[in-house]
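Hey team,

Filing this mostly as a record. A colleague (T.K.) asked me to run one chain through the structure pipeline before their review meeting, and I want the input and output archived in the tracker in case anyone asks later how it was produced. No errors, nothing strange. Just documentation.

Input sequence:
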Amino acid sequence: MKKILALVLSIMLCMQTAYAAPIAAGQDVTEDGQQSEAEPQDEQETGEAQAEDKEVTGEAQQEDGGAAENNSESAGEGSEVSAPSAVLIEASTGQVIYDKNAHEQLPPASVTKVMTMLLIFDAIEAGKISLKDEVVTSEYAASMGGSQVFLEPGETQTVDTMLKCIAVASANDACVAMAEYINGTEEEFIKLMNERAEGLGMEDTTFKNCNGLDADGHVTTAYDIALMSGELITKYPEVFNYTQIWMENITHVTNKGTSEFGLSNTNKLIKQYPYATGLKTGSTSKAKFCLSATAKKDNVELIAVIMAAEDSTNRLKDAINLLNYGFGKCNLYEEEKLTNIDPAEVKRGVEKTLEVAPAEEFRYVDTTGADLSLIEKKVTLEEEIKAPVKKGDQVGRVEYYLDGEKIGTVPILAGQDVDEITYISALFEVLFRLLL
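Output structure:
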């Protein structure tokens, strides 16, 4: 009996040693736990879906976020970010928390699709298209290589399904189909992409296509990606209904019949990191491995952009380190309610006073550990407000100070129209007073 027990213990010890064996250098871990050689990169992004299947190693996971404080200093110094270019911003304020060559122009691969999705939501908001619209795939759209859902010429899918294909599976064919549906041709859609980029202050960005396939001059920066990502998630938070889908099937209905096609999220951060909400991955041989990662914890929303990482594992590790650093560093101040401001006096108006209010609640992100209860505010109205005044006109500002330093400003807006007094209106006012 003792010999049998000793044999069992010996076998268990050998098994434990085998499972604890380290992963060899140059290998990644797939989702099923098997080791595989580092994946090759494909210039036309045919390998993106396979590349995205690699999981980040246990060293970078830190799923409970508990390592945030321990990593904050090293991440702040850049030693925990291996990618050559990266940025971390707070989404609602746009405040930059970390910057590593964030304005260096680089190809973005499929992170380009952040702008494509932004324009799709713009078109929906404008009433130009709806989620239920049927989109017909052209031969040109169906000819796209790389990451795709294999739409066939003449095949129709709803805008809703196309968005799933773009956000989840990074489908190049769906991007072009949507570009043609919104603007007639991809070329016209690209013009709109660049106009939108200019409006957002993306000074170092030029788009040459709508899906991110490598093309000469198709470049952007980590900072510009953060700008368009922030615009997308703050203006259209419904995008998270798509970016958080892990797996889902779509149905192809073509002349060949009906078939199911499985979508699998290319952004493994959704499963690897508990606070992840999106947003978009990308990889080509020229761009290497890129990611715009969004996450939210305790009402703090962060965007971490990684560009030109060497492989998918380092890309995810960099993103998690930056997000942990940000959540450990950020302290958010939010006003509980809008500042109450007394009505303002109006000169030469049919009304003598004007209702006014701040344009929005004030938010501020501190990374220094300051006592945010010491924030003070100063209300300033224009010295002389003259009619006519239109509702929404700026008539003053609320300034916020911490330790004597101004940390932000919120405009004060007119809450109503006030017309300028005229001879006739003045006469009526005199008569009205006499009658009283």
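Quick notes for T.K.: Residues 374 and 402 are 6 Å apart (CA to CA). The longest strand covers residues 288-297.
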